[in-house]
Write a structure and sequence with these properties.
heterodimer, A: alpha+beta, eleven-stranded mixed sheet, 14 helices, 11 strands, B: alpha/beta, six-stranded mixed sheet, four-stranded antiparallel sheet, globular
Chain lengths: 411, 274
């Protein structure tokens, strides 16, 4: 038995409907799949970006804002904690490493982040993709996506909190707020993090303090040295300190200790979990809407296919008169309808992938996060379910064809 | 070569366990059992006897009216006959009952010594596929398919791909039907060409009984003559019995016997063609 010649003839006879019906199904199906894949990608990318930020310490306030500013480099004015905390943490035996993070300046739209060479190398995990790490106050290393060449000189400018500047260009506002006379020379390029730090220019934190007239955090006899240890008496206020604890137990102890007094300590994951919960709720809501959308479109297309089976009654009756069994007619009608629904589901997968790639590129450009733009197996599974449902729905026109009274229909 | 009786006996086995199931499904054997060879000798013409056939139709007021009323006729193997009569006389209903498509309310249609309406539907479908060819007034081709695909369509009911012998036969039938453009879609052919393709389709499986419902009614005289020549000529070649419903005097003059049907009954004696 080979019903395909008749199925293909039926599909050809549909002309534009054979394209429109799968397209409608594809659009309906792609919404849910793209949504699920996008949310998962965003979740993975944002979690990965926070990998090296084990414990954050900042001034009491919004934990979310501290994470957004420190991990995702969304510029915002943060309250400062006493610089002595940095010295105390550096001397704490439960702390493997501590690095201050200082913000406030930009160059050609790229945020300038003051920190230590140790944190720039993510606690020694990374080596520069090009050049070396900074070793003097006038040196800088740039993120993988910063369009500056090694040896190039830049001048920092005051950034305006809450107003992200366009990347790679120096706008008039930036030129107006330049720290004239201060220059950094690019000496290295970092490998790609897949985070907003790929767009950052990393400089010694001492230089950031000095530009703003706060000293350099070291005793006078230390001169121009960069990096820890810092002098407790000389370190100015810092917006955030990143801690690498020696152990998990130490991490929890430190979090408890630095939650008291004038500091706030937390794991970025705590904030992310809360954000993901909210994101998950929104996703669930949108997925319900997408499923309702699928139901409406599948119902509409099924009714269309049922109507088409009605219009093709005479063709099916002719097949029976020529000797086809009821099973052949059923297979023909079922395959035709199932092919349309299955083609719609598969096209939906392709459309979802294209949507994810397009939306991801926009989100990546805005956030700097490297979001995996791929539809996973878990995203595709609902498609298999929809195809199964489509196959069952296709039985409606198939049974309508199966039951036609041949002689009456031929008249 | 298996006999017809042997084949019928084998059909009672739904599928054989020593065959690959998927292959059986793809080739249609799960539905049909072992395929029957479609060579001419495998479906020999049989005497067709219509015995006291009555077909009724129920009106809206649930009253039954007879479309065919106690009708009897016989068609000898290889004979040609025509049925004529006014519209609504029951000609097409008789043809449908003969093809196993319209169940009679009483009476019987015998194929040889077997009543086709006593068979299960599956067997009747198989008999229609193997032994009956059907030509419609309005061709009923699949316009989206090519000429050869249309002619080979009845072979798809139990073959994934038509056997080479049938493909060669399709080419030969197309040539005899005067269809030069085999690659063309059927919908692009003229009406006369379409009906000739429909005749070729009806004959592809070497039917023993050819039924035609007004085959020339929608054609001009020239095309009508070509279709009649083809229909009767090819049927005679394979030794098929032919029953044509027609008003066309040119056709009536070419068949062995003419029956006149009025109000569900045969009237007058069967007439030999002039």
């Amino acid at each position: 038995m080979n019903p395909w010649p008749v199925v293909l003839a039926d599909l050809r006879s549909l002309r534009w409907v054979a394209w429109i019906a799968p397209l409608l199904v594809a659009i309906a199906v792609s919404v849910g799949v793209a949504l699920s894949a996008q949310e998962r990608g965003l979740r993975q990318a944002s979690a990965r970006a926070a990998d090296d930020f084990d414990l954050l310490i900042g001034a009491p306030g919004s934990q979310t804002q501290l994470v957004l500013t420190t991990v995702y480099l969304q510029p915002e004015a943060l309250p400062l904690i006493d610089g002595a905390v940095l010295a105390a943490l550096s001397a704490d035996p439960r702390v493997k490493a501590a690095a201050p993070i200082a913000f406030g300046d930009i160059s050609r739209g790229y945020p300038i982040v003051g920190t230590t060479s140790a944190f720039a190398s993510r606690w020694g995990r990374l080596t520069p993709a090009e050049g070396r790490f900074f070793a003097a106050e006038s040196e800088a290393v740039v993120g993988a996506d910063v369009r500056l060449a090694l040896g190039q000189s830049i001048t920092p400018a005051h950034a305006t909190a809450g107003h992200p500047a366009p990347l790679g260009v120096e706008v008039a506002e930036e030129a107006h707020h330049r720290h004239e006379g201060v220059h950094y020379t690019v000496v290295g390029r970092l490998p790609r993090f897949g985070s907003p730090w790929d767009h950052a220019i990393l400089v010694p934190v001492e230089s950031v303090w000095e530009i703003h007239g706060l000293g350099n955090g070291h005793a006078d006899e230390d001169g121009e040295r960069v990096g820890p240890p810092f002098d407790a008496a000389k370190v100015p206020g810092v917006p955030a300190i990143v801690i690498k604890p020696r152990s998990v137990a130490d991490a929890y102890t430190l979090r408890g200790v630095y939650r008291r007094g004038g500091t706030m300590a937390f794991f970025p994951a705590e904030v992310l979990v809360a954000v993901y919960r909210t994101l998950g709720d929104v996703r669930d809501l949108l997925l319900v809407a997408a499923i309702l959308n699928d139901v409406v479109v599948f119902a509409a297309v099924s009714i269309l296919l049922l109507a088409l089976a009605g219009l093709r009654r005479r063709r099916y009756a002719v097949l029976r008169a020529l000797g086809a069994s009821r099973a052949y007619v059923l297979a023909t009608a079922w395959l035709g309808a199932a092919a349309i629904l299955a083609a719609g589901c598969l096209a939906g997968l392709v459309l979802a992938q294209l949507t994810v790639v397009a939306v991801t590129s926009v989100v990546e450009a805005r956030t700097g996060l490297a979001i995996p733009a791929a539809i996973g197996l878990t995203d595709s599974l609902p498609i298999a379910g929809l195809m199964a449902i489509g196959s069952l729905l296709a039985l409606m026109p198939a049974f309508a064809a199966f039951r036609i009274p041949v002689a009456d229909t031929l008249r | 070569m298996r006999s017809f009786a042997e084949r019928e006996a084998r059909k009672q086995i739904p599928f054989r366990l020593n065959r690959n199931l998927l292959y059986q499904f793809m080739s249609g054997r799960i539905f049909y059992g072992e395929p029957v060879s479609t060579s001419p000798e495998n479906a020999p013409p049989q005497r067709v006897s219509v015995d006291a056939l009555t077909v009724e139709r129920t009106k809206k007021d649930r009253a039954a009216i007879a479309i065919l009323n106690d009708l009897s006729l016989t068609l000898a193997p290889g004979a040609t006959a025509a049925i004529t009569g006014p519209s609504g006389a029951g000609k097409t209903t008789l043809l449908h009952a003969l093809a196993g498509l319209r169940r009679p309310d009483s009476g019987a249609i015998h194929w040889g010594d077997q009543n086709i309406w006593a068979w299960p539907e599956r067997q009747r479908d198989r008999w229609r596929r193997d032994a009956v060819g059907f030509v419609f007034q309005d061709f009923q081709l699949f316009p989206e398919l090519g000429v050869l695909d249309n002619i080979l369509l009845p072979t798809r009911f139990d073959h994934w791909r038509a056997p080479q012998s049938l493909r060669e036969r399709a080419l030969a039938l197309a040539e005899q039907a005067g269809i030069a453009t085999l690659a063309a879609r059927a919908g692009s052919l003229s009406r006369g060409e379409q009906q000739r393709v429909a005749v070729a389709r009806a004959l592809i499986r070497h039917p023993a009984l050819l039924l035609a419902d007004e085959p020339t009614a929608s054609l001009d005289r020239e095309n009508g003559t070509r279709v009649t020549d083809l229909l009767l000529g090819l049927a005679q070649k394979v030794g098929a019995s032919v029953l044509v419903v027609t008003h066309d005097s040119a056709v009536l003059g070419r068949v062995g016997t003419v029956y006149r049907l009025e109000a569900g009954r045969l009237v007058g004696a069967p007439q030999a063609a002039p």
